[in-house]
Amino acid sequence: MLDDISLKILKILQEKARVPNSEVARQVGMVPSGVLERVRKLEKQGIIDGYEVRLNPERFGRSLVGFVFVTTAPGADEAAVGKALAKIRDVQEVHYVAGEDGFMVKLRASDTAMLDRIRRDKIASLPQVRSTRTLIALATFKETARIPLDDAAIQNLKRRRK
Question: What pTM was computed for the model?
Fold first, then answer.
């Protein structure tokens, strides 16, 4: 069960995953061993899915963000196409979407030439891909993987656990 203390722990870790366990314990008013046990339970329950470091894309020559919309051929195996798209190293996200396009793929590149090479050689060349359409982000004002931990999210989590 997700109580107020576990929720506080999640909020702290989502803000800064590298915060020392002792600092989390201080903020929630527990001993460090108790916090560690709660975090392990949250991981085991699949509430905490993992930890990752966010790198500055500009430092690695990947400041251009592109969204490639992928239309599959009639009768294509969407799961297979999604998995193939997900295996492309340059791809950051793959979403199966409603509408004309079957997939929306987010990738980062150094410039438009690199973006086009990835699109042409790695995405459009997949056998079940019929066509692609690309949008380039001119600016990014927000980019996050954080989940808002509000009352609705907590109620949804509680319903799913029953």
Answer: 0.81
